[in-house]
From TrEMBL:
Keyword Hydrolase: yes
A Gene Ontology molecular function term of the record: manganese ion binding
Aminopeptidase P N-terminal domain mapped to chain residues: 19-133
Pfam families, A to Z: AMP_N
Record keywords: Dipeptidase, Hydrolase, Metal-binding, Metalloprotease, Protease
Listed name of the protein: Aminopeptidase P N-terminal domain-containing protein
A GO biological-process term: proteolysis
Length: 179
């Protein structure tokens, strides 16, 4: 198999599981199918999730080890953080292929892209984690106030999707159990 024909995947080290991006593609499809069937979801709604952000440790220039926001990672498989980048800077086409996405944009284009798409509603994630007592960090960007936003529909639907595991997700869990 040549490098060009290898499906997109990520691996966090030499002795870790190679996780295919198709796991996250399947998750996105499952979420969209569930939302299409859900009561109260307006036609033309667009899901908007907030990714994780790099944080610095206390009053230093040292970073806390980055962990992607869990719902964002479940949906897209994106590992990269937002603000700090070391190494080669890739173009949008690279990330489109890497994450098997239909479309990719820079974060500073969100308002303009969404305005062109003219969604009926933006579905943002806001819900309580009953274990930690913390709420999900709701997506925000300059200009979001120009859109109709619903932050109640998405959380129960995406949480329910995450309860029922796909065969690929079960494979990841089995690998973790063995490690």
């Amino acid at each position: 198999m040549t490098a060009a024909s290898v499906p997109s995947c990520y691996q966090l080290g030499t002795h870790t599981l190679s996780v295919p991006i198709s796991l996250h593609t399947t998750n996105r499809k499952r979420l969209c199918e569930r939302l299409k069937k859900a009561k109260g979801v307006p036609a033309g709604a667009i899901v908007l999730l907030q990714g994780g952000e790099q944080k610095q440790r206390d009053c230093t220039d040292a970073d806390v080890v980055f962990r992607q926001e869990s719902y964002f990672h479940w949906t897209f498989g994106v590992l990269e953080e937002y603000a700090i980048w070391m190494g080669k800077i890739h173009n949008l086409e690279h990330f489109k292929k890497k994450y098997d996405a239909d479309e990719i944009f820079f974060t500073d284009e969100i308002a303009e892209v969404l305005q062109k798409k003219s969604p009926s509603t933006l579905l943002t994630l806001r819900g309580l984690n009953t274990d930690s007592g913390q709420h999900c960090r709701e997506a925000a960007f300059d200009g979001i106030s120009k859109f109709s936003v619903d932050n109640k529909i998405l959380h129960p639907e995406i949480a329910e999707c995450r309860v029922f595991k796909t065969p690929q997700e079960l494979e990841v869990m089995r690998f973790c159990k063995q490690s």
